Automatic annotation (TrEMBL):
Signal peptide range: none
Keywords from the UniProt entry: Disulfide bond, Immunoglobulin domain, Membrane, Repeat, Signal, Transmembrane, Transmembrane helix
Chain segments annotated as transmembrane: 222-243, 255-279
Residue ranges constituting the Ig-like domain according to the UniProt record: 52-146, 151-230
A cellular component annotation (GO) from this entry: neuron projection
Keyword Membrane recorded: yes
Highest taxon, organism lineage: Eukaryota
Protein name, as recorded: Ig-like domain-containing protein
Organism classification: Eukaryota, Metazoa, Spiralia, Lophotrochozoa, Mollusca
Source organism per UniProt: Mytilus edulis (Blue mussel)
């Protein structure tokens, strides 16, 4: 057997041959050199024939009650003679019984065998084997079957707050078995079209589930939900609340107590001045009235001329009244 190397960068340093994952060495084998790699087998026997190679595939992670199809694709020379499906239990394996067709079924061809598991349950989870053999050796392909669930989606924060004009990131994480296939975000119950709004949002996906909102505005306030889907179904996070505030409005609102306090202080000051003026006026009026009353009383006490003539009493009365008027 000779292998032709068209080009090698960097240059080859060694040539190693292997068979079924095992390195070949010993006097029976010669492997040429780095310029002309080759393999020579001396005293060939039936055991030198290669094992059948089986590549396994299928929907091996599914939900309870699902139908699972496991497929083997076999390559072999010489051709295989038969295939057997087995199920592994701890350190041994048991051939699957197909007489009861309600649980297991088989189909396909000799080189492409298919195992069908109907109404998948927890008891059906485990390792399944596809064995293919010819006259000299047997090859085995392995595949595990497990019950899958919808993704478990979590939020890191319950409430977010942002300011108009800034960017904000809403965090999302998930655990999915089988592998997640798609992810999307909801705002107020409506799916956000991230492809049509790339200037507004990051392109969230299963590799980067977080959602970044650029240049947030007041209308970005709302309830957001992160949803992830796999072949089993779709799982969504709990509500994520986002509140956007405007710094201009906050500044105006913060000044309200100052303005109200200033106006109230001015009103109290004006009312105090008015009351002071009114009280001062009343005091002056009372003082003047009291002076007049006392002066007239003195006059009446001094000038009681009961023993004088009417003419003198009258004349003297007029003169004293003039004096009193001047004093008042």
């Amino acid at each position: 057997m000779t292998v032709t190397i068209v080009t090698a960068v960097p240059p080859l340093k060694a040539v190693i041959w292997s068979r079924n994952g095992q390195t070949l060495f010993g006097s029976r084998y010669s492997d040429g050199n780095t310029n002309t790699p080759s393999l020579s087998i001396n005293n060939i026997t039936a055991s030198d024939d290669g094992k059948p190679f089986i590549r396994m595939s299928g929907n091996n992670v599914a939900g309870i009650g699902s139908t699972v199809n496991l497929e083997g694709l076999i390559t072999s020379k010489p051709n295989i003679r038969n295939t057997i499906w087995k199920r592994a239990y701890q350190n041994t394996s048991v051939v699957i019984d197909f007489t009861n067709g309600s649980k297991f079924g088989r189909s396909g061809t000799l080189f492409h065998p298919i195992l069908t598991i109907t109404n998948l349950q927890r008891a059906d989870e485990g390792l399944y084997l596809c064995a293919a053999s010819h006259d000299f050796s047997e090859g085995v392909g392995k595949i595990s079957v497990s019950i899958g669930v919808v993704p478990l989606v979590s939020r890191e924060e319950t409430d977010y707050q942002g300011t108009v004009g800034n960017d904000i990131q809403l965090n999302c994480s998930y655990d999915s078995n089988p592998q997640a296939m798609f992810l999307y975000w909801l705002k107020n119950g409506t799916r956000i079209n991230l492809d049509l709004q790339r200037e507004k949002y990051t392109k969230s996906n299963v590799s980067y589930p977080d959602l970044t909102i650029y240049n947030v505005q007041l209308n970005d306030t709302g309830i957001y939900v992160c949803c992830v889907g796999n072949v089993i179904g779709v799982g969504c996070s709990a509500y994520i609340k986002l509140l956007i505030k405007d710094t201009k409005e906050e500044t105006s609102i913060d000044l309200y107590p100052v303005i109200i306090g200033t106006v109230a202080g001015l009103i109290i000051f004006v009312l105090a001045c008015i009351c002071f003026i009114k009280v001062e006026g009343n005091c002056n009026e009372n003082r003047d009235s009291d002076h007049v009353y006392k002066t007239l009383s003195i006059y009446n006490a001094i000038y009681d001329y009961s023993v004088t003539t009417d003419a003198r009493k009258s004349s003297h009365c007029y003169e004293d009244i003039d004096i009193l008027n001047k004093d008042v």
